[in-house]
Each structure stands twice: as structure tokens, then as C-alpha cells.
Write a structure and sequence with these properties.
The protein is of the alpha+beta class. It is built from 3 helices and 7 strands.
Length: 144
């Protein structure tokens, strides 16, 4: 399943990083010496791709350059949200998770509005949190 959802930039190759609970692509090094790679967390319903950069300074030299959220039905992936920081964003697992959750909340709210469905914010927030936790844990979440 991982190979089906890997972005093309992974080049079909990824390793699992247990410290951050994600698959990571090979690192591209720019002419300035900065490294760039992608991280992937997935469940059977969603995939979250993190664009991460590594600079050469500070105690946390990693930056979160973007997040793309995909829905996944087992055969195809579809972009349902994207985020890019307006300024420098130091990478942390907490920031990455909050961004992914907010992307999913925004998508779910827009879908509920489009369908004319009445869903409380707490229901949407709880569902989004559970879905992102399933991706962070790289495990399926089969609930509706």
C-alpha cells in the first residue's frame, strides 16, 4: 500500500523513521547545502505528506515547508488539503499533527456544508483527530 500512495518525489523509495513515525524519502541536497525530503504518514483512509527542509543552524535545523493531505480509497489518492507556512516554521511532530488535523477539519466542514449536513464542531474535531492519529500510528482506522 505504501508504494501506491508515495508521491512521485519519493522515487518509489522510502525508509521508516520510528522516531517520527513516518516513512521518509531520500534527501535532496541543494547547491547551498540545505537538505530537503518528504515524510509520509498513512492509514487506510488518508495519507499525510510533509515537505521538510534541513538548514545548517540552530538546535532544531528542520523546517516544515508544507503539508499535503490526501484521501485514499485503496486505489486512488486525491488531494483534499494543502498548507504552506507564511514564514519560517520549525518542524515539530506537534506542529505537523496540528496542521494535518486542521486541514482535515477544514475539508470535513466544507463537505458537510456542501451536503447541507448538520455536524457539530466537536464531532468533526474528534473525527479528524482520530483519523490523523491513525495516520501518525500508520495503522488502519476502519470506523465510518
Amino acid at each position: 500500500m505504501v508504494n501506491q500512495v508515495l508521491p512521485a518525489s519519493f522515487g518509489g523509495s522510502a525508509t521508516y523513521n520510528r522516531d517520527h513515525s513516518m516513512f521518509v524519502s531520500e534527501t535532496y541536497t541543494s547547491a547551498m547545502g540545505h537538505g530537503y525530503f518528504q515524510g509520509l504518514q498513512l492509514s487506510n483512509r488518508i495519507a499525510v505528506v510533509y515537505d521538510i527542509g534541513r538548514g545548517g543552524w540552530g538546535s532544531n535545523p528542520h523546517f516544515l515547508n508544507g503539508v499535503t493531505l490526501y484521501s485514499f480509497n485503496g486505489n486512488q489518492k486525491q488531494v483534499i488539503g494543502r498548507w504552506f507556512p507564511s514564514s519560517w516554521a520549525f518542524y515539530s511532530d506537534g506542529l505537523a499533527r496540528r496542521v494535518a488535523e486542521q486541514l482535515l477539519v477544514n475539508f470535513l466542514k466544507s463537505q458537510a456544508k456542501m451536503l447541507g449536513a448538520s455536524v457539530s464542531d466537536s464531532e468533526i474535531n474528534n473525527y479528524a483527530s482520530a483519523q490523523i492519529q491513525a495516520a501518525v500510528s500508520n495503522r488502519p482506522l476502519l470506523s465510518a
